[in-house]
Amino acid sequence: MKELSYNIQNIAEIVGERTLLHRPNQNIKHLLTDSRKITDAKSSVFFALEGKRDAHQYINGLYAAGVRSFIITATNFPTDKCPDANFIWVKNALRAMQKLATSHRENFNYPVIGITGSNGKTMVKEWLYQLLVTEKEIIRSPKSYNSQMGVALSVWQMNHFYDLGIFEAGISTVGEMDALAQMIKPNIGVLTNIGAAHDEGFKNRTEKLQEKLKFFKNAEVVILNKGYIGESQNLKNIFTWSLTEKADLQVLSLHKKEGKTLIKAVFHQNEIAIKIPFTDHASVENAITCWATMLYLGYGQNIIEKRMMSLLPVKMRLELKKGINQTDIIDDSYNSDFSSLDIAIDFLNQQNQHPTKTLILSDISQSGIAEKELYQNIAQLIKNKGVKKFIGIGPSLKKHRSYFEEGNLFYDDTDDFLKNFDWESITNETILIKGARHFEFERISKKLSLKVHETVLEINLNAIVNNLNHYKRKLKPGVKLMAMVKAFAYGSGSEEIANLLQHNGVDYLSVAYADEGIELREAGITIPIMVLGPEISNFEAMINYNLEPEVYSLRILKAFADLVSKKKIKEQWIHIKLDTGMHRLGFMEDETEELLSFLKQHPTIKVKSMFSHLAASESDLHHDYTQQQIAEFEKITTNFETELGYTFLKHICNTSAISKWPNAQFDMVRLGIGLYGIEGIIEERNYLANVANLKTTISQIKSLKKGDSVGYGRNGVMQKDGMIATVKIGYADGFPRSLGNGNGEMLINNQRIKTIGNICMDMTMLDLSDFEVNIEDEVLVFGEDLSVYEMAQKLGTIPYEVITNISQRVKRVYYYE
Ligand SMILES: *Cc1c(COP(=O)(O)O)cnc(C)c1O
């Protein structure tokens, strides 16, 4: 059957209320929501989505880039600046996109599995894909595209080449499910675990469950854990599973051994079993859900058993890490389909560290699109997205090399590439490695990545964006946001984090020293940067790199003004720091008169902003003090604006003050620790996502006898016969010595395990007397499941110190889901 095609006229008929179509026959393939992610300008229609920033401002730029079709809401938009373009007016652009997806969905009669739940949606979706792909042509949501917009974009990918759809639907508050249900229209519903995720969006668990169940209104069956059924009587047809009670698939027992779980159950009075290569609780539940789905679909138990045993871990994440020869590596060695390629290339293009972008790609073993068309599309995508160097690995890519630009390299397989590639030819570039699993691209990634000392600090970039958006929502209209990336972005890594923040539209960055600012400029950061601690010796460099100094004393100001006049600079922006009570840096109130008269005499020096810092913004105890600081700040800045005759940005709020002192947001806030998922205000912590996981590995496990001593100074003594594990992190990595001798803990397989003996420089010993662990087990030092607050408390310090103390030799690995 032919692929469905749309022109803009067809789309206008589906969503439009009013139209201005200069090219009604323009063919439309792509729904564009982000002006930075154009795939093919001509065949894209841009949706000016509602958001914090008015998306209409991007239209002229998109027009210049070749986009000719726009769905907009502003009735008075000046369309004359875009002659020969198509405009469709709608009331709400997101709703219009959903309406289009809903209408598109109507064209297909093949079954669609719709998955919702709090946790496990992506894993169940990917596993069902792995389990069913042998005989089905499957279209599924890319990555975890399950939001109001993600679902629309996923459903839009449906076409007649497929014969099964698997989509996930995620909601965070009441009223969101209807649109998702209409677009996906699942025939087979799957409900995964209902956990605590997004609890804040609902009055209670029942309300959350009720909202989720709307998804299944028209499904022929819902597959779910029987435990959820009490509150879901209005479901028509259900297929249940349970670990504890009678159900369609009743699990009898779980046996975990050597990294595998044997799951025995009863189905239709027969005892059946599967074995999966995982032991963690979430994987077991998700595998049971998939098992139930396959049984419902009528698969024979012998096929199910075989496929369950070969389930692969679901890794939807892209990893960003440092590579050889000044490269940055984006590792996506596990997923290879066309839509995830598109997403990965966008992430590649978000990186500004190097002008050259390289893609190493394997054959895509995707069904659904004919091979020839697939590789034509890939070649086009690469060209459109400005990927400079392309390396194709695999027979199919090699066969279709004529679609690609001259000079691109092609290899038969991974071995051919590893053997014959000129490794010296790679330098100073960002390289995306993307391959299907059986190509084993992890071998390429290993060769290109810098050697990793096996302790890593994993940074979740989605979590940072989540936290950024959390604080953005708290800002009053028009308030700008400065993100603090001082001290190596609180230990997370300045360049990568600054790049992410720039991409996500923060207004300002702030660093502690000029050097840090220079590094950011050299890494392609172009947004304004304020330097908190400028030094007279590097003023010149600051001017050259367009870094804006914090001026905190007359001494600094005079030196700076001298340089500005010597260099005959016409206008130079500065930021003035007032000391309203922190008593660290800044002009005290009684110094402001002299400051003012100096500024009046030096009109080339312009105040860009005036700010102060709160000494105890999170504290109730010091409420009055904070209030006084704010009042003094307001008084001085008002006076300066009147006296200088112009306005400037005023800011005093750090992270905690954003929520606690909303009336002090003035023109800008300075967000620091909250970005990294940490808050002084306890109630706020629930809304933040964990950003960093510090992980290490075990070097050796050994058995000792009661009374044996462990480590330097023989401080640790075995209380009984048992094992210890030596792990690869010590005080030189940022695991302080005072956590030794049982004071500190690490997490292995969800077990909290205490240290024994003194912490060494590069190693720590853990007491396994009461625990069983394997040498290959991952060790969590702090993170999602072992909080950094707790570690800080044991150390008698604050999380700020713990995270900024992680040594530079600990590799930072960034991931993006
Ligand atoms: C570090 C810093 C901040 C950020 O503080 P958080 O508590 O991390 O939000 C804000 N302003 C100044 C001047 C700072 O030095």
TrEMBL record:
Chain residues that bind substrate: 584, 761
Substrates-to-products reaction catalysed: L-alanine = D-alanine
Family: Belongs to the alanine racemase family.
General function of this protein: Catalyzes the interconversion of L-alanine and D-alanine. May also act on other amino acids.
Modified residues (N6-(pyridoxal phosphate)lysine): 486
Name of the protein described by the UniProt record: Alanine racemase
Taxonomic lineage: Bacteria, Pseudomonadati, Bacteroidota, Sphingobacteriia, Sphingobacteriales
Pfam family, any one: Ala_racemase_C
Cofactor(s) for this UniProt protein: pyridoxal 5'-phosphate
Entry EC number(s): 5.1.1.1
The entry's keywords: Isomerase, Ligase, Pyridoxal phosphate
Organism name: Pedobacter segetis
Pathway assigned to this chain's UniProt record: Amino-acid biosynthesis; D-alanine biosynthesis; D-alanine from L-alanine: step 1/1
Active site: 486, 712
Coiled-coil regions, chain positions: none
NCBIfam families: alr, PRK11930.1
PANTHER family the UniProt entry points to: ALANINE RACEMASE, ALANINE RACEMASE, CATABOLIC-RELATED
Domain of life: Bacteria
First-level EC class: isomerase
GO molecular function terms listed in the Swiss-Prot or TrEMBL record: ligase activity
Residues covered by the Alanine racemase C-terminal domain: 691-815
